[in-house]
Amino acid sequence: MAKFLHSFQKIAALTVALLAIGLSVNAQTWYIMGEYIWSPPNPQGTFEVSQTLGNDVTIGGLIYTTVYENDALIGAFRNDGYQVYYCKYNGSAYEDEVMLYDYELEEGDFFNDDDDHPMQVTEVSTITDYNGLERKKISFMFIGLPDEQEYWIEGVGSSRGFANSGRYTPTDEGAIFHLLCYHEDWMIIYVNPVYNSCDVNEIVENNANLGVNVYPNPASEIVNILNDSDMIINDVEIIDLTGRTVLKAEKCDNIDISALAEGQYFVKLSGSTTLVKKLSIIK
């Protein structure tokens, strides 16, 4: 994660450790929309990129976590308390470390003071993620650029994507970036309310009311899938809290879960879209 939540620091640290054991190295993914704002060398329009976490690497005696964009190494970051530091990868080596986030900032504080257009905090508030966890939100304006705005979600990153914090100007290709959503493995944690969308090949709904229900919940022997929507369901997966698929079925209305242990699970429904429902199994 970009950092651990203030009030959940010890719990979050344990959660990250468990995720590292149970999930792949790309357990955390940010889906980002790139937007060309002028034509040359690319046509105007939008495109999607993803930023994922990789393995650890040692730089200058410190341990960093690598960051990939569309499978290409772009940098590495490390946490130091409530600050996040980042080393950009230029294709052959890592550049000097810069501060990427400072989650202790309060209203009126500045970030990137040495930049031509430093960021100033305009508001500190709280949002609730898809799992009901409250997270700090820090909103910014850019000095001298009144139309440019950015916000950070604690434990998620910038509204422009995790590694794009402070990127208020276009890249050399004439593109700017907007965070669409953030996943921990396949499960959505945050969706940008402005765009309310995600990568088309990944989960686009999470516990939304599409007329699809999983019942009874809690369940012990059989779980039923009621579909009163236009969604086409081709596959059903029961997934445990480590991200492991423990049961798969095709086009099933009734699924036998009697062999599964008691605990918390997710039901992933795939077809014309992808929907995730929480499921409790009791014995």
Please characterize this protein's 3D structure.
The chain is mainly beta and 283 residues long. The protein has 2 domains: 186 residues, no CATH class; 70 residues, Sandwich (Immunoglobulin-like). It contains 1 helix and 20 strands. A hairpin with a 2-residue loop joins strand 9 and strand 10. The protein is elongated. It starts with 8 loop residues before the first helix and ends with a strand. The N terminus is likely disordered.
In total, how many beta strands?
20
Secondary structure: helix percent: under 10%
Shape descriptor reads elongated
List the uncertain runs.
1-26, 200-207
Number of helical segments with 4 or more residues: 1
Oligomer: single chain
Strand order within the widest beta sheet? 6-5-4-3-2-1-12-13
The major beta sheet can be summarized as: 8 strands, antiparallel
Q: Please compute the radius of gyration using only Cα atoms.
A: 21 Å
Mean pLDDT: 79
Order of helices and strands: HEEEEEEEEEEEEEEEEEEEE
Tell me the distance between the termini.
34 Å
Total discrete domains: 2
Q: Strand pairing plus helix content: what structural class?
A: mainly beta
Taken as a percent bin, the fraction of beta residues is: over 45%
